[in-house]
TrEMBL record:
All residue ranges annotated as the HTH gntR-type domain in the record: 17-85
Xref: PANTHER family: GNTR-FAMILY TRANSCRIPTIONAL REGULATOR, HTH-TYPE TRANSCRIPTIONAL REPRESSOR YTRA
Keyword Transcription applies: yes
Coiled-coil annotated residue ranges, if any: none
Protein's recorded name: GntR family transcriptional regulator
InterPro entries membership: Tscrpt_reg_HTH_GntR (IPR000524), WH-like_DNA-bd_sf (IPR036388), WH_DNA-bd_sf (IPR036390)
PROSITE patterns hit by this protein: HTH_GNTR
Keywords in alphabetical order: DNA-binding, Transcription, Transcription regulation
Cross-referenced Gene3D superfamilies: Winged helix-like DNA-binding domain superfamily/Winged helix DNA-binding domain (1.10.10.10)
Protein's organism: Nonomuraea composti
UniProt KW Signal keyword: no
Length: 121
């Protein structure tokens, strides 16, 4: 098992996103980058919360979001593990979300971003 500190180095208090979204984002990235492979168990929500210094319910909310995205599986008595069908697309999805948010901050809309991507392709 990978220690929680490796997949979740810190939460940014200046980030406008809610804490559960930051936690979900960090776990998505860890899965996408291969820190967690299919079938690997994650630390318990309580251990993650203790490491991050946040409420366990916040971590559980993040884990439920990832379960709903089918990146994680909850198994009674076995904890939370990376779903067997999870792949590196999780990282790409997360980076695309971040890119779109950053683009919006600079005043670019979706069509502008699509045009930019076409230029780069």
């Amino acid at each position: 098992m990978v220690p929680a500190a490796i997949i979740l180095p810190h939460l940014d208090p200046n980030d406008a996103r809610p804490l559960h979204e930051q936690v979900a984002s960090a776990i998505r990235r860890a899965i996408g980058e291969g820190s967690y492979m299919q079938g690997d168990r994650l630390p318990s929500a309580r251990d993650l919360a203790d490491t991050l210094g946040i409420n366990a319910n916040t971590v559980l909310r993040a884990l439920r979001v990832l379960r709903d995205e089918r990146l994680l599986e909850f198994r009674r008595g076995r904890g939370v593990s990376v779903a067997r069908h999870a792949d590196g697309r999780a990282l790409l999805r997360e980076r695309a979300r971040e890119f779109l948010k950053e683009s919006q901050r600079y005043g670019y809309g979706l069509e502008d971003v699509i045009a930019l991507l076409r230029e780069l392709a």
